[in-house]
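Review box. Two proteins, two foldings.
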Amino acid sequence: MDALQRIKRAGFEVSLSGDTFTVSPASRLTPEQREFLKAHKAEIVKELSASDTTEPAPATDPLMVEIWTPSGTPMTTRARDAEHAAWLRQMNPRPENPAPKPDPAPRGQTISEAEHNAAGRYFRFLATWPDGRQCYLCQMPRMTIDEMQAQYPAATHIEPVMNEDYPHD
């Protein structure tokens, strides 16, 4: 894999800026990635200069198609056949004005599960049914115990599961 594709696949935008290039969001670059970029600067500039045309580069496999997300990130996928490849290119062109990518929220700005629990809104509940079965219920948006009991009136007992954190919800 060439240097430019490697950094793009890591989720970065790379653009030519004179005789150098810019990477965004630069704040997400790790020290290892910064060293990699320094070591491959000439190669990346050369690749960006060569790809700065409106014609797509010839592919070695005609079913490998470069498609674009609305935010302007290129992706490579394999089409089923030539007709599918043409459709993919037509439906996923490079955007003229890409949508801006939001920066991820800094860790200090996320709300912990304990803060949600303190507000009386829970993500996970343990429900008991009349026949003794129990199951976990996960609810987004988070609900109060009263809201869960109204949603599951057949449950004989519903209690929140606490002291767990869900960092990816």
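Next protein.
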Amino acid sequence: MSTALWILLVLAPLGAIDVVYYHLYRFALYARPASVAEQITHLVRQACFLAVVALLAMGTPGPIARVALVVLLAVDLVDSAVDVLLEPRSRAALGGLPPFEYFLHFVGTFGSGLASAAYLLEYGKPFAAAPVWMVAPTLILGAALLGLESALFRARGSAAARPGAAGWRSVSGRVRARGGGTRAQPTVKLFEDAIGFVIGRRPRARARHRLPATDEAQHATFAGAHATIGRERFRAAVEARERQHQDIGRRGVGRDRRLRSRAALRRPGARDGDAAVRWGRSR
């Protein structure tokens, strides 16, 4: 059995967690216009993964299969690099990637490179076919996730492209028309509810982690305006506090002068009040 296949089978559960929880459930990347390019890279990578696992599971590949494996592994590595370049801009409105998703991506990319190196080391060498019970769950689950993610992505894309549609909605699963009505997407909503049921929470329970795609530009504008207003308010508060300290200082100087004047009037031998006042101020 191929060493590269062993590595890919170990990586499969981690990739499934990444797809189901982060891509489909928590962030619904298939429904965000800003994540279209990233979503395409994810679909390409899943297709390459399934093809490589299927070819390696059949045992020693023939000449055409060997070339196909090299091409698929190269496409996977290039696709991973493109995904890394797209993620900062795609996830900017979501606050970036969570730490555990960063960990999953790192392990997945490192494992793919390790599998590619292992296959190149055993290139041209014979190896046995993998048992069906070992490979079948990975292929079935991978094909199901690929089909589900592709269907969701296509359903949201076709809904947004319809005449009168205002855009994709990543939280409610509906597309709002210009006339004010809504057209529900029952298939997409059913998939979202199913994912939430499997995880054990409602699909909208973590909706605060993402924004409707049509409101992202407005959110960015409002955030910038609020930051500017906050800086102006802070500057105004500092200036007001400085003026208050200056007023307190001036009042304090006047109070000290009045106290010295009163003390001079009470001095023994003071004959002229005006002279005493002037003497007290001179102190």
